[in-house]
Design a protein that fits this description.
Bound molecules: pyridoxal-5'-phosphate
Strand order of the largest sheet: 8-16-15-14-13-9-10
Distance between the termini: 53 Å
Largest sheet: 7 strands, mixed
């Protein structure tokens, strides 16, 4: 049960199920003697609150047309002292307003996020989904390819989408450029990554890959060279090709502790006059590297020396496992910021990729002007559900994300152990970020396309390594964002297929 200390009070959040009803509740207790002073039962059907002066239980219904959690938090924020007095504690010590606001924000998030059982995925329900991950391969294949998670979305996102449908709220959205989302983005990256940004530097767009395409079109010219750390997320390669730019490969190299940037080669490429852009991926897909501050400082130095511009895809920023931390490249200083377009979204970490919404931060005004030179209607309007879901994710859904990360960390360890013990010959560095494992099958002699082998022989759909560039030949990428039971089944199928091959 989440619990928060607030001066002389304890705030206890409960998620209850009561006679077919239920929902979040908040108990306000006096810390010294654990006496319950106030209780808010934000139930779905009959939300109400209690105050118990002298043991008399006064119960008041809440307005059923208002969000009961919102009402509770707003009421406590406005008049906690008055409510405590009504509960019989008129000389309660005064609370510092900033501490109260912080505690109420935490309480609100806890109330909006009931515990989730990530083990409880129903295979029949997954198979009935229409998304690419589950719908593409028919029959008995288990998909571990496209980077979607199998988990249900955070409750605040689900509730917001449901509210929109229930009230027919599918009209044109408020222009997101001027409104809440950029401010929410700025607050979030400040809090999570210590990155100070101005909301006016932020543009909302359809998705991150769109940002890459528009960025390439507007920040470079046809024929310019674009540097990327290969193997890399396939749309990077397509974007460079389809915009008529030239890929300048800077292949990652296997060091003792994992995939590393070849800085000598990067420096050489950055000095070549033809190369104008670094198309950067951090955390890196498919290697799962979260580049360290020291590595990023070297990248920034090379970029500035080579007078490059950077499109930095940081979509996996929220999926970094401790002790690694995400460091936005543009947060390293004004010189690198001025030449960097950073792309992020809530879609990957909160599992809402189908809602299509991305955010771009422009560290320099000139980058922004160029980007916006593509007319707004060519760039396209954003989806109102994507917008509201992203707001619900960033405002309220952090407890869900914390729980997902803990579960994914367990899966990451499970994969690491399984590969070491039961897939001999497969090489793998556990990722520092993302829910993707980059598996090297080259020693096993499966040929260039191990994912094809696994689809045919194991009925497991991985992403083929060579789709991430020629350096990926003989590799495959495994998506481990599923229940532990399904992950075990996927890995066991793979082990059996390899066994059958060696014994047969
Ligand atoms: C590195 C990277 N960038 C972008 C995307 C897709 O972003 P969007 O759906 O916003 O285009 C993905 C999806 O897996 C990704 O891994």
């Amino acid at each position: 049960m989440p619990e928060f200390a607030l001066g002389p009070l304890r705030l206890v959040v409960e998620h209850r199920s009561v006679d077919g009803d239920g929902g979040p509740g908040l108990r306000v207790l006096r810390a010294s003697d654990a006496r319950e002073l106030l209780r808010f039962d934000c139930f779905r059907r009959a939300p109400h609150w209690h105050v118990d002066p002298d043991g008399r239980d006064e119960m008041t219904s809440l307005d059923r047309f208002r969000d009961p959690v919102e009402w509770t938090i707003a009421t406590l924020g406005r008049d906690l002292a008055g409510l405590l007095a009504r509960a019989g504690w008129s000389d309660a010590p005064a609370l510092e307003p900033a501490a109260l606001a912080r505690a109420l924000a935490e309480v609100e998030r806890a109330m909006r996020n009931p515990p989730v059982d990530f083990d409880a995925l129903d295979l029949a329900m997954l198979r009935a989904r229409h998304g690419e991950k589950w719908a593409h391969y028919p029959g008995d294949a288990l998909p571990a390819w496209v980077a979607d998670m199998d988990f249900p979305q955070a409750e605040p996102i689900r509730a917001e989408l449901e509210r929109m449908l229930a009230s027919g709220d599918l009209g044109y959205p408020v222009n997101p450029t001027s409104k809440a989302l950029p401010a929410l983005f700025a607050a979030r990256v400040g809090e999570r990554f210590g990155w100070e940004v101005e909301p006016r530097q932020v543009e909302v767009m359809i998705d991150v890959v769109q940002g890459i395409y528009v960025g390439l079109e507007t920040l470079s010219a046809p024929g310019d060279g674009v540097i990327a750390q290969t193997p890399v997320y396939a749309p990077f390669l397509n974007a460079v090709k389809e915009t008529g730019r030239a890929l300048a490969r800077n292949p990652l190299v296997a060091g003792p502790r994992g995939w590393e940037i070849d800085f000598d080669e990067l420096g050489r490429l950055a000095r070549a006059p033809r190369n104008r852009i670094l198309l950067f991926c951090n955390p890196h897909n498919p290697s799962g590297r979260a580049f360290s501050r020291a590595e990023l400082e070297r990248v920034a130095e090379i970029v500035v020396d080579g007078d490059l511009r950077v499109i930095s895809d940081e979509i996996h920023a929220d999926l970094v496992f401790a002790p690694s931390r995400h460091v936005p490249l543009a947060s390293l200083g004004p010189e690198i910021a001025a030449r960097t377009l950073t792309l992020m979204s809530a879609t990957k970490a909160f599992n809402i990729a189908g809602l299509r919404l991305g955010v771009g931060h422009f560290g320099g005004g000139e980058l922004r002007e160029r980007f916006l030179s593509v007319p707004r209607h060519v760039r396209g309007g954003v989806n109102t559900m994507g917008l509201r879901a992203t707001e619900a994710a960033w405002r309220w859904s952090q407890p869900w994300l914390d729980a997902v990360l803990e579960y994914l960390d367990g899966n990451r360890r499970f994969v690491e152990r399984f590969v070491r013990e039961q897939l001999p010959g497969v090489r793998h560095f556990p990722p520092q970020a993302t829910y993707l494992a980059w598996l090297d099958f080259r020693e096993l002699g499966l040929g260039a396309r191990p994912a094809e082998f696994m689809l045919e022989r194991a009925r497991v759909a991985l992403s083929e390594g060579e789709s991430f560039g020629e350096e990926g030949r003989g590799f495959a990428r495994l998506n481990f964002a599923t229940s532990r039971a399904l992950l075990a089944e996927i890995l066991e199928r793979m082990a059996k297929a390899l066994d059958a091959r060696t014994s047969g």
